[in-house]
Task: structure prediction
Amino acid sequence: MTTPLDPAAVIAEFIDRVSPYNPTPDADPVAVLGVRTAFGEDVFTVSDHVIRAMCRALESYRDPEDRGNCAKCGGLHLDENLHCRDCGQLHGILGQVIAEHARRVAADSGPSPSSSSDDPHR
Result:
């Protein structure tokens, strides 16, 4: 079970981490952020330095599930094996390499000639 995130606590920790690096610590706040969740409400007044850091952090975030778009249908639902859950296509050159490898492994794992019943070592 994953522990639920408390967004207000995460924002407060972010502000605490970034604030010490503010080149103008006495500057007036430039934004007020209000957060209301199941955990409660909180309001933060933040400096230009903090709000810029927050914006950069949000702009640079990439979802771990984002594996690009399917080359065939343009869908956003590629699984960890680059298989599109929307159209079933394996994605791109890497998808083709994975598919070819899977076919070779499947072909190699077929019954071997030494598994016949006339094998003297059985």
Q: What stands out?
A: Helices lie at 7-18, 48-60, 92-108. The two ends are 49 Å apart (CA to CA). The beta strands are 31-37, 40-46. DSSP finds three helices and two strands in the chain.
